[in-house]
């Protein structure tokens, strides 16, 4: 990484410098300048750095060593090339639809290493994954028990538990309140009895997921401790040992100025205590703890890159109109859950040495004011034909966006590693 690069007061630049190589004017991803990759795959494009994904996986695996296995949550980025990368690293796969199941199988996942969660599994989906083979189905409601019973084939299952409010955490709360996800903790005994009434369902574990985008290590660890306590309760109620304890995902990444990354050292320091907590209850002492991150593994490795179509001024505001906008990247527009809209980090990937002294509002080509990816962003003085890159875009990007809205072309996708570009088709 070049040491003589000018350092503009730009959050995106500082974040990019910590993640990627910068060589002169160029942001380098996977061993190639971003503009070189775009010249091959086209603009707009989602670009993923394979080595950064591997690095994130290995850091987390080291932190959890001796305590938990990692299952990649495919909902974050279900591209087969991405799933295959994590299979190569040794991950299992967590899915939330038949489509993700098929992507995991196509990528080479062994069926027994796939978990199926989600609050609205259709009978046809359940039949298909049971026929094809599945490690576990995570049951989220009474109706789902009835569907599994009526299918009649043997299946291993976990109960998904919506925990009490005191353990909720994260930017988006997945539990601890009224929710469609799982059985409320206060109804746990009834849920256990309902599963036990189906002869073909073997209850092998629990799944607890309190929230997502968690940057506070202690909040995350508190959820995991609570999940282990619930697992012991379930095992004592059934009188049978559990095989798995799914602690959920929710590990976050820093998006905005002032965000601090999740402290993996603090997580690693708590592993002996968590492992001892497991061993303290005989009926769960042999259980396998599972963590199912998605965003943490892929989010930082991805860029959304678009060429600027036109530059214009309107009443004192400078607009950069890009080839793609919220139709390609809904999360960056703030329309995927943000209450207070804040800018994702952005850079000009072929102008990295230029000062960020030309604030601009980035918009897409759609006929709606919602199509705004950043407001008053610090960028160089850019013109039509220049590139803009939105960082932290590896998770909940393309497949979380309304790509058919107004019928604009879909973006390209590519996984880049060691100078090799692998185009991704869906």
TrEMBL record:
Coiled coil: none
Pfam families reported in the protein's UniProt record: Orn_Arg_deC_N, Orn_DAP_Arg_deC
Domain Orn/DAP/Arg decarboxylase 2 N-terminal: from-to ranges: 54-298
UniProt-listed PROSITE patterns: ODR_DC_2_2 (PS00879)
SUPFAM superfamilies: Alanine racemase C-terminal domain-like (SSF50621), PLP-binding barrel (SSF51419)
Domain Orn/DAP/Arg decarboxylase 2 C-terminal, chain residue ranges per copy: 49-394
Source superkingdom: Bacteria
Keywords: Decarboxylase, Lyase, Pyridoxal phosphate
Cofactors required: pyridoxal 5'-phosphate
Tagged with keyword Lyase: yes
InterPro entries: Ala_racemase/Decarboxylase_C, DAP_deCOOHase_LysA, De-COase2_C, De-COase2_CS, De-COase2_N, Orn/DAP/Arg_de-COase, PLP-binding_barrel
Family note: Belongs to the Orn/Lys/Arg decarboxylase class-II family.
The name this protein goes by in its record: Type III PLP-dependent enzyme
Species the sequence originates in: Shinella lacus
